[in-house]
Amino acid sequence: MNGQDARDHQRGGAAGEVTTSGEHSCEHGHGHGRDRAPEHGHDHPAGIRGWLHEVFVPHSHDAADSIDDALEASSQGIRTVKISLVVLGVTAVAQLAIVAVSGSVALLADTIHNFSDAMTAVPLWIAFVLGRRAPTRRYTHGYGRAEDLAGLFIVAMIALSAVVAGVESIRRLADPQPLDNLGWVLGAGIIGFAGNEAVAVYRIRIGRRIGSAALVADGLHARTDGFTSLAVVLGVIGVWAGFPLADPVVGLLITAAILILLWGTARDVGRRILDGVDPALVDRAEDTLGHVDGVNDVTDLRLRWSGHRLNLQAALGADPATTVAETDALTARADHHLRHTLPNLGRVDLTVISSQPHRT
């Protein structure tokens, strides 16, 4: 109902259904006492097992640090993509210089592969730009889902990398080929690994900060390319040590690692597309709303990601005698507390309904 209808309906003091929605930022930070929801944590494996889990199947970190301004988050994503393109471009150019000196056809193919992989960031760049556009009458929810489409493309590229690496490794096992200019190839592999891993760490860190599953996936894609370069390094070392089949064997191991990484990436991107969220976020939202003064219960709580923005809707039960002014104050408090406890919160739709307080 509109504002006037709500006032007419509640003039006698009975609480009706009043909805508030919006997206704003809180420019001040402070604690909320009992209204503050507990911090969210995750149990990760410890030691070497934990490190391997973080490298190959990193947690999606839906509950990342809060960024209130959607445009600023998109700008960070675009800036990350630009810097990544420069770093990967420099890496590929350095490898190309080694190709010119060594004349290695295999290294030339790997360099071309790195150039093409660097360009996979372009769809993500386009997605971030689209995500900044205002909703239209056709796309009433905006264009945030463009990030999820870019994430699907990146997952496909990771799968392609696994197929190419696996086929090439099997081919070399069946028909071993001597490696020439091992010193130059080793140097190119180190450059490729360093450049791709630096980009991977940067993309994953920023992607988690702004809540972008697609940017995290793109970081993992760069990591797969780094693994491929690392396989070259380990293969050269193995050949020097007297194991000529070390190169294809290591290649198969790297292929297995890429497949494990692919599973984690496809899982996170797929969950976003199906409107899946970390259940801990639902718990945090429910706990936060339940501690707001005047709220008797919380029902119909729903969360969904739109790109890197988290949207929320819920029905708040309040005393039937709650006035319109008190309802407005209640929803304002609830919105305020939510934005201090949930990450990257965008649109919030809160409906206040009549509800008796729970008796203990």
From TrEMBL:
Membrane topology, record value: Multi-pass membrane protein
UniProtKB keywords: Membrane, Transmembrane, Transmembrane helix, Transport
GO molecular function: cadmium ion transmembrane transporter activity; ferrous iron transmembrane transporter activity; zinc efflux antiporter activity
The organism of origin for this protein: Cellulomonas gilvus (strain ATCC 13127 / NRRL B-14078)
Statement: the UniProt record of this protein carries the keyword Transport: yes
Region Disordered: start-end pairs: 1-45
Pfam families membership: Cation_efflux (PF01545), ZT_dimer (PF16916)
Domain of life: Bacteria
Residue spans of biased composition, Basic and acidic residues class: 1-11, 24-45
Biological process terms in GO annotation: intracellular zinc ion homeostasis
Lineage: Bacteria, Bacillati, Actinomycetota, Actinomycetes, Micrococcales
Compartments (UniProt record): Membrane
Protein family: Belongs to the cation diffusion facilitator (CDF) transporter (TC 2.A.4) family.
Limits of the Cation efflux protein transmembrane domain: 81-273
GO cellular component: plasma membrane
Major site of localization recorded for this protein: membrane
Record field: transmembrane: 85-109, 115-131, 152-170, 182-204, 225-243, 249-266
Every Cation efflux protein cytoplasmic domain range: 279-346
Protein name: Cation diffusion facilitator family transporter
